[in-house]
Structure formats: structure tokens, C-alpha cells
Amino acid sequence: MAQKPIEYRDASPAVRAVFDDIKTSRKVEDVNNFWKYLAHDPASLKRTWDSVKAIMTPGALDAVTKEMIYLAVSVTNGCGYCIASHSAAARKAGMSEAMFGELMAVVGMANETNRLANGYRVPIDPAFDK
Amino acid sequence: MAQKPIEYRDASPAVRAVFDDIKTSRKVEDVNNFWKYLAHDPASLKRTWDSVKAIMTPGALDAVTKEMIYLAVSVTNGCGYCIASHSAAARKAGMSEAMFGELMAVVGMANETNRLANGYRVPIDPAFDK
Amino acid sequence: MAQKPIEYRDASPAVRAVFDDIKTSRKVEDVNNFWKYLAHDPASLKRTWDSVKAIMTPGALDAVTKEMIYLAVSVTNGCGYCIASHSAAARKAGMSEAMFGELMAVVGMANETNRLANGYRVPIDPAFDK
Amino acid sequence: MAQKPIEYRDASPAVRAVFDDIKTSRKVEDVNNFWKYLAHDPASLKRTWDSVKAIMTPGALDAVTKEMIYLAVSVTNGCGYCIASHSAAARKAGMSEAMFGELMAVVGMANETNRLANGYRVPIDPAFDK
Amino acid sequence: MAQKPIEYRDASPAVRAVFDDIKTSRKVEDVNNFWKYLAHDPASLKRTWDSVKAIMTPGALDAVTKEMIYLAVSVTNGCGYCIASHSAAARKAGMSEAMFGELMAVVGMANETNRLANGYRVPIDPAFDK
Amino acid sequence: MAQKPIEYRDASPAVRAVFDDIKTSRKVEDVNNFWKYLAHDPASLKRTWDSVKAIMTPGALDAVTKEMIYLAVSVTNGCGYCIASHSAAARKAGMSEAMFGELMAVVGMANETNRLANGYRVPIDPAFDK
What we know:
Chain A is built from six helices and no strands.
């Protein structure tokens, strides 16, 4: 039996409080499916949202850079949902198509050279360990 | 039998030409182990360097952003060599410790939520497919 | 050309023998798609089923713990089929929604801290190698 | 330049507060390297420890089951540090050698059948989506 | 907003030149979706095609062996598109169903033993480093 | 507490029987560390060896092709032990340095294009599903 999303109208007060904070913080009318599914575990919902909110707030890195890094990881892991949602989020934060193209080129190249380094069993240069 | 690095003095003219271009482009006195091992396959060495050089040139994304994305992928894949070399490259390109800390926090969080999305079998919101 | 499932009525005696054993062992009326596709290679079908049967039999670990570990791996790898089938199997073996929520929280956290350990290049504590 | 661990004597009050909580909660004399490296980012240190502490507290799942799931993920991802530290933690929480052997057998089998399901392109059985 | 494929009739001269080369080299009437999407970044399209063409040309390894290795990687990574396209390419290059079955068995077993080696923390035999 | 290898002289009769079969089948004087560690779980040792022996026997694919596929998977997963041991095994089975170079080039390219397909969210061509 697959789980169903929990909609706002059916949510407990604890879940609604998180949904409200997401909607206010992101200025959206409804939360994404990710949060509606995670709502099956209210403690996990709150902890995950609190962490995402803290981590994704602009700091030493700006919002679009953080979203592009999120997308780079999601593409590497092949998480379909995450690629769709963070592509949208990165574009909303200012990623142009040219930026997306370059991001994908770097992600592709890194995935390639990671395996070349593995396969050729390249030892770490002493300079990198200083 | 593990392979050994190919040093400049022992390299063929084709390999030396790539090593020279790496040294000139990066303003370094010697190339990293990665290139010395890949030199066992001169065609692969040249193709990989040409691609890396083209992809990592600043364009719509600047150099430090590209290096941080490279690092995010390498950390996700757990490539020890690549983490060491691209940590160094990102720092050289301007990544501060505060930027590294935020990068790692995003990479960690993305790896976590990728699995939450997988495990809860979250369907893609129609808005993301428009 | 994608492969099609092999149904019992179309199966060879060798494949039917495995299907019969799965149905008897699991007390089900039909085998899952996984086995119907693997049936294209009868030797692989038999070897895989024999291993799964031996490994998933309760021993030092009970059935629900084994199924939750299977699910944790499948979620980490992002295998959609395996997540669907082993979610069902784990629930059948006694995994409650509270257990599922905690399982997912651990899987998410482990995927996060695995990358933090990678990225910070944390050396193994001597105590762990004793 | 690789980072160095931050020892208690050199730590800021914010970092010391987390180290103290780890030592008290786990009844250990010193924290593991993981925390000494993560201490370079005090906000990440605190957030990660708070989450780990909340998630690993026995609830619907007991401590040893949670540690074994953590280990299953770490083994799947090939995180050397995490395998070493969570092998130790799981044994401390009660994992016997027989339990470890069965855990590894399930992890190995799941990683195998995940790929068989991928490669044979097995569609999800309708029963799993009900 | 998801991207759309770029069809030949709507493509720039630079993109058409690559599409033409793919069609001629592979003796196909139209290019696969992969190239139609990558065409959003013409530089990446050209670089990727040039590399694929060079790498997949028979040399020390024949065409079917190269396609099977491509498929083994794609199955391990769980890339649905790549599994579908390289299954087709491998069959076109001569992979029989018996070869596919054995390929999958090796891929499954390697994914299993990779994790057993990780989990048991097996040190590399000195003989492998000579 | 890390595990130690189990040497022949200290092994139980059941473990010795497997070790003997490995030594005879492979014409080697001693088994690799992998088997000495797996020997902590004699049932897993026997099951894994029986599967490896059956799967790696030449059939529709010859020995060197099977070893190269094993290596391609191990490189993709970044399993250091497996890369070392299967590099050696592939060379012993006849893989030349030219073959190794081409293998690595295909593995690298596949890991790259797997991510490009993920990131561009490329839908499967209808022709591949026929």
C-alpha cells in the first residue's frame, strides 16, 4: 500500500504549523508534494524543514548557487523528484539556461573524471594533504 | 600490477604537449597525478584535458562556482582523490572556509532529502512539468 | 526491444519449478514481476531465488529487520521497483508506519553524514581499527 | 590545504557545548574525529548533532536496529569512515557477529537485485501501488 | 518549467551539423531524444558527440563489448533513459539474450561483492599493488 | 573492533572446503583477502563463491569480457578493493593496456552521459520501448 499525500485540510496542528511556515517563507500558496508525504512523520517533517530553511538561507553563498549545488547532487544521485523540484527552484532563484547548461557540463565532467581517478587508482598528490 | 605515473621526462611528445598546455593554462610547475596516470592513454588524456579546459573556463558561471559544483559531485560520489584535488582547486579559486561549510551543508542536506523523496515515493508535482 | 514478463503458463519446467517454490514459500498466488522478468535467464532466476530465500530466512535477524535493511539499501540506490516491492514486503512482515518513519529518518541522516565525512576528509579514529 | 581536527582545548564555547552534550549523551571521554572536523562549521555541528541525537534515540525501532540501518547505508555508499564508526557503534549497541554476517548478506543481495530490477527494466506490479 | 526537445527543423546550423553527423555515422533517420535535449547547449552537444563518437569506435575493444560496458555502468547507476537506449544499442551491435543474461548476472554479482568488500573492510592484498 | 582475516590453518572444515575449491579452480596457492574476511560467515562464503564461480565461468561471454564488466561496475561504485582485485583478474584473463584504456574511457563517458540524461530529464524514445 503506497502512501498518500496529506493535504492541509486533513493535517494535524503540528503539520499545519510547518506547512504555514513553508508557505510564508517561500511565498507560495501550497507546499510541494515532498512535504505532503513527509507529513506522515511530523517530527521528521519539522526537523527536515527547519534544516532546509537554515541551510538554504543566503549566507556566504547566495540562493542560486545553493540551489545549483542541490541540483548537482540530485542529478548525480538520479533522484527524479529532486531534479524536477530543484530545477524549478534554481530557475526561480535566477539560474538562466546558459547557467544550467554549464552546470550540467560540470556535473557530467565531474562524474566522468571521478571514475577515471578511481579506475587508474590515482594516489593523492602530497600537495593536497599539506 | 598497478600502474605508475608517467613523468614529463619519460613522456611521449603527444603527452608532453598536453602536459605543457596544462602547465601553461594553470600556471603550475608540474601536473597533478591525475594527468600522469591518464597519460597511459594519450588519446584519453588529450580528450579529457580539452573537455575539462573548455568546461571549467568561466562563462555564465564563474570559476569558484564551477569548482564548488565539481566538489559537490565528488563528495556525493565519495571519490577521495577528486575531493582532495577539487577542494584545493576551489580554495585556490576563492572558496573561503565559510563558503566550504555552506557547500557541505547543502551537499549533505541534498543527499538526505534525495533519499526521503525516494523512500516516500513522492510523485512529481504537475507544476514542475509544465 | 524491451523484454516482456514470462507468465507461468508460458514458462519452461525449470522456470515453473522456481515459480512454484516462490509461491509455496511466500504463500502467494502469483510471483512478482521481478521474477517474471528474471525468468528470461533460468539459471540466474534459480540462483537469485535460492540466495534470496536463504538470506531472508529469519536467523540472528528477524524477518522485518531484514526487510527494513533491504529497503534502506533500495532507497539509498534509488531503485524504484525495489522500493515499491520491499516497502510492501516490510509492511507485510510487520513494519508499522512509525517504524517506516524512523527507518527513513535514519536512512536520510546516514546519507547526509556519509557525505559530510567524505567532504571534511575525516580520518578513521584509531579506536575503530583496534 | 587539508583541514585539521578541532580539539576541545582549542574549541569555541559553542563548539564545546556540543562536544559536552555528545560526551554526556554517549558516555564517552572524547568525541570522534567526525565531530572534531565538523566543528569547523559550528552551526552545522550543532544542527547535525541535534538531528543525529533525535533520530538515533530508540523509539519504534531500537538502538541496534537503527545502527544496523546506518551501517547498511554506509556500506552501500562505500563511506570508509562511516563503515568503521558505525560498525563500532552497532557492535556497542548489541550487534553480534552473526547479526553482522546476516546484515552484510542482506545488503549484498539488495545491491545485486536492485541492479537486476534496473537492468531487466521491471515495471512495478499494480499491487504495490494500491 | 521542463525543457522540450529541439527538433531538426527548429535547430540552429551548429546543432544541425551535429545532428547530421550523428545520423550519418549511425545510419539512422533521426537522432534520439538525448541529443534533442542536449541541443539546448550546442557547445555541450558537440563536445559530447565528438567524445562519444571517438570513444565508441571499435579499437582494442569491439562495438558490442563497448556497448555492454556502457550498459553495465548505466544499470549500476540506475539511469532509466540510458538503460533503455544502451540496451537497444547493445542488441543492435550484436548482444544476444544469452549475452544480456550473463552481463546482468556479472553486474548484479559485482554490485553485491563491492558491498561485501566495503562492509568487511577488506584490505588490498599486497600482490595487487606490485 | 575491526575483523581479522581467517587463514587456512585457523579455518573450520567448511571454510577450508571453500578455500580448497577456490585454490583448485583458480590455480592459486592462497585465496585473496576478500575470501579470508568473508570466512567469518561460512554460509555467506560458500554462497558467494558458488555464485561467483557459476557466473564467471565463460559462456556466451568470455572470461576477459566478464572481468572487464566486473571492473566497470567496481570503478563506477568506487570500491577500492574491488578495483585492485579485478584489475589484476582482468589483466590475468587477457586485458591489455589498450583494452584497459578503452574500458576506462567508456566507463567515464557512460558516467557522464548518465548524468546529462538525468539532468535534462530526457524521456525514453518510444522506439526503445517497442
